[in-house]
Amino acid sequence: MLFSLDFESKDPIYSQIVKQIIIGIAKRELRPNEPLPSVRSLASDIGINLHTVNKAYQQLKQEGYILIHRQKGVVIHPEGVPKADSEYKETLKQTLRPIIAEGLCKDLSHESIADLYQEVLKEFQREEDIK
Amino acid sequence: MLFSLDFESKDPIYSQIVKQIIIGIAKRELRPNEPLPSVRSLASDIGINLHTVNKAYQQLKQEGYILIHRQKGVVIHPEGVPKADSEYKETLKQTLRPIIAEGLCKDLSHESIADLYQEVLKEFQREEDIK
Amino acid sequence: MLFSLDFESKDPIYSQIVKQIIIGIAKRELRPNEPLPSVRSLASDIGINLHTVNKAYQQLKQEGYILIHRQKGVVIHPEGVPKADSEYKETLKQTLRPIIAEGLCKDLSHESIADLYQEVLKEFQREEDIK
Amino acid sequence: MLFSLDFESKDPIYSQIVKQIIIGIAKRELRPNEPLPSVRSLASDIGINLHTVNKAYQQLKQEGYILIHRQKGVVIHPEGVPKADSEYKETLKQTLRPIIAEGLCKDLSHESIADLYQEVLKEFQREEDIK
DNA sequence: GTGGTCTAGACCACT
DNA sequence: GTGGTCTAGACCACC
Predict the structure, then answer these.
(1) Is the distance from CB of D88 to CB of D52 less than 8 angstroms?
(2) Chain D contact present for A76, CB below 8 A
């Protein structure tokens, strides 16, 4: 798995790592039980401190995306992530609202916003889904 | 305009204000040239620090949402916000990507994600658009 | 609130802090909305690193015992902690099992173990409960 | 004797083994002088490292639960474990305190905590005790 | 002054 | 070699 990090971003590094791993899981590039690099090796690969990687892993663990074994290292959670409940859906809408509002203010049409959305969604298209 | 702020949120207060004003503009509850409360009055209304409101306004001004006149006060930008360019669209997709990925990981279908998206989009429906 | 920490203990310092705060809440010495010392002040009071205190606070936050405001600091959660569900009860029994087994092996009678238990429980007796 | 180990647990493997053997003794499923499997066979049965089993046995030996003979192998200590002294009782209360506090914070009543405690205690009920 | 993030470097427990 | 814990010290964002 490749990481592209922006060290200048306002979004903290550990958060960028979290997001990329979640994207990897959603794209099924990372499958259940697949091992992730160790805290130390990933840190030195990226050229950051091991604590930063650890913080990302801890958050992923807390949200159910991965399992952390003391010696075996880190793996994608074999049973997947807790499914979305209605509370989560509400949070998601809450998150979407200002993003969509910004697009509308910048004169994007409803259609072009919906298109952008579909484009992103397509990135996650899987063979199974097409069948 | 009413503000509902969450002081426990990880999202800073000034950012919540910015978002709500942008949402207000997108919903056309706030129209071009419409005056916004002064920094002082808004701060005391909400019960927060002057600096916080000021920071929100400065950001809105910097992004072209509002104009700040020394005497006349603060108004919604009469000419609207700079339109979206392709760079902005890319940023928007970048923002959407981890959000959508998270939903997919939580086992939401492409359809139900698209539905949620449409629901939010509908909140911004305007009479003009329906005609 | 006073902290008595054992720096030689196998139980990590941050965990000892967590436990003492939970005990404080259970004894109602710490009431909802009551402020806790800042990360820095508690760290320097105890004579440990601020990260250690922070780790304790983060865990308490994650388990719903406290709220962490970016500027206002840390307070006991105003609405209390998520109530015990049946899963938690099972975990609790799981935790208790080896502890009780050890006592029995050391020839404590069922009665004396039950007595010890009651003694601890009494430490948490509250005026309201006695009325 | 059957072992059920949780390799994902925060509790180390060797400690889980120790606890289960202590529980076995408390339930009198393991009687004084009863032989335990050798380090080698237990390790290969469970599919774990020799060192892990050895560490568990060493701890049990050190606390007086078992005897390790070079030739005869491992047996449950024929004379039982050193009886509880007042220091031990204090340690036990110390251990119990945060566990009980957590239950109380989660809104369990004194009664329901005592009930849970009794349930666990009953698991160790023996015929002799009932007579 | 508050917590949040990041770095650097050390020691330990577990397998 | 793995993650867990702790320290020390720095800079930033928020209010």
Answers:
(1) no
(2) no
